Structures are given as C-alpha cells and as structure tokens.
Prior knowledge:
By secondary structure, this protein is mainly β. The protein has 2 domains: 4-289, Ferric Hydroxamate Uptake Protein, Chain A, domain 1, CATH 2.170.130.30; 315-405, Immunoglobulin-like, CATH 2.60.40.1940. The protein is 9% helix and 40% strand. The chain has 4 helices and 26 strands. Strand 1 (24-31) and strand 2 (36-44) form a beta hairpin. The radius of gyration is 23 Å and the shape is globular.
Amino acid sequence: MRAAPLLAALLLLLLPSATQAAPTELTVRIEGATRTLFEGPILSDGHDVEAASDTQPRPCDGTNGGANPAPGPTPTAAAVDAMGLVGKDFDGRWYPGFDDYFIQRWGPDREDPESGAFWGLLVNGMLTPVGGCQWQDGAGDEVLWVYDAFNGRSPLRLAAADDPSQPPQSPAPTAAVEVGQPLALQVDSYSGGEGEEPTIEPAAAVTVAPVATEAGSGYETVEAGSPDAVTTAADGTASVSFDSVGWHRLKAQEDAGYIRSNRLDVCVEPMGGGTCGSPPADAQLRVPERYRNPSPPPSVLRPALGADLEPAPSLRLGRLKLDPRSGAATLVALVSGQGRLRLGGRGVRPFAAGAGGAGRVALRVRPTEKTLAALRRSGRSPVSLRVAFVADGKALVKRLGATLRLRVPSR
C-alpha cells in the first residue's frame, strides 16, 4: 500500500496558508511519439508556466478565460511539474484570445503539422473541450497528454482481469501474482469527448510486453519484441507469467489504430506468498520542488482583474449524464455566482433554472416529440444544446453537441 495520503497530509501541513490552494494528488501520463515520457502520481496545483520559446510566465490555474471562479490544479501545470521532475521542459504558443497555451512539445517530442501529429489532452479518458490551462482537475484525476491524438486512434487500457474498475476509469496501477503462476489481463480501447458516452471495446491482437525504463529520464519503452510479450485474444484477454520474483512492468503496445496503454506494475511474489517491498520510486507519489520549498505567490497579474474587482461571471458545462430509459439526460453547468440559466437548442425542450451562487446546477435535457420519435425508431438521436447564463447584466452562452439514447425493446 502506498504512503501517498500520509505524505500528502504532511506536506500540506508544511505549506503556508495563502490564497493559492494546496497541491492535489493527480496521475500524469505523457505518451510521446515512440515512448512514454512520464507516468505516475504527483502533487500539483495551478500556477504560472512559461514555454521554452515564450518571453514571460503565463497564468495556468483554471481561471483562464473565466473558465472557473477560483484557482485549482490544471492538466498543463501538472504536466509541466511532471516534466520538471525528470529535468525536461515544454514548448507552446500562447493565444491571448483563449488565455491558454497550444502545446507544441513535451520533452523531446515536437508536433509534426505535415503529418497532422498534434498533442491532445484527455482527462479521465475523455478529450477535454477546453485547453489545459482552462480545464480544472479534481483530486485523483488522470491527466493524459497524447502525441498524434487526432488521427482516429483510441487509447488502450491495461488492467488485471479481476480489477473491478470499468473503462475509461483508471485501473489499479498494481497487481500481484505468485512466481510461475498465470496473471489474467484485460485490454480495452475507449474513445469519446466531454459530454459524450464513451465507446468501449475489447482490444484484439494487441501486444502486451515488458517495459524498459531509461535511467535518468525515466522514459518508458515497450519491448514488443521480448520473448515474454503476449498478444490479446478477440475479447481483449491475455495471460502472462513470470519466472522471477520482484516488480515487473507491463504495457499494451502502441499498434495501428491504438495509443499505448497505462503501465501495470506487477508484484511477483515467492511461491506460497510474500511481498515485493515498496513499488518502484517512479510509481510512488512524487513531489515537485516548488511544493517542497514553496516560494511567495507569483506576481503575474491579469490586466482585466484589479485587486478590488470581482471576477467576471463564468459558465462551464460538465458531463452529460444520459438516461436511456426515458431518452432524457442531465447536464451539469458550473457557474461563478448568482444568475439564471436557460437551456435550449435543436431537438430539445426549453428548460430554465436559477443559480443561488457559485457551484453546480443540474439542467434537464428532454427530447422534443420529433426527437423522441427518432429515438423510438433507432435508439439514438443527435441534438444540439445551447446554455445561456445571465448574471450581472451579462449573458454567457455555451454550445454542446450530444447524442440522446433510448433503450428500445427488442422485437
């Protein structure tokens, strides 16, 4: 069992009480062009970041563009912290209109516009609708940056077959088996964007192989040609065994149509049971230097916000929760304060709700009669949602495309 919660608690006691929130434990994974550049749990929080080609630090705490009312951990800041732990940097282009970086490079791997290989961001298995400085992470989230993320490839998920978690939820990072005994594995692929129901399928004919970890950088390479590599069956299953005790590492290899999986660290116990000791150091909670020796809060100020001014109203749309029994759904809106919300759009009935203050508001998405008829015929129907938040005399509007579903009885 990891000592991460205890370590995190001790660190938080050492941190000064400032307006900056305490760092949060996240899992960061950066899948590069040919190898994994970083993988594991770290402490991170939103903070200023500066790309290698930029001329100044930029804020990156989730309040960018008014996306969230208060600072917090973000995928870009977390990945910057992660790369800093292995002595590497990043590059990107700052877009003032989005108040965010467009990431061009993590460590050694730069985008390749000619082949359409760009960096993309997933959080908890879903592509995010906003940039990595606008999106705000919660404790325990998995941040995944992927090279060549938009060429139709689905991420792979590797887990022990008895792992109770379901994709795209992150599986347990470790498993245990006695030496010489088979360990059953399950490899799935998943895809989808924020607000969509994920598509999950077993990954057939995928290679699961040992992982070589490069000294110094910690970069991970899947040894697909290893004699210990195995291939998944049509249902995504495979079985491996080990002839030596201790910690062993596995990944599902990046194959045609797939992005390589998370790493599974396997404790191979002596026959009759035993322990492997603590997991490898890079599988334990790592703490960037900035949180071990915190400096005073950064001095970067936003021109639009003075010390005595209230933040502008903000609206963010959360995940759409479908109800296949009725064809309806619930959409969570995150607002910065008191106001009025109105939902409408193509294929749905109008809905209104009040917000008494900053927080979450559940909006009911109900199909029109025409949409409901389409649902009864085929079980699914695309809709276009429009959410308006009216506060302080200003109206903010967000749009979202989605597909409603209805469980149609088989004839």
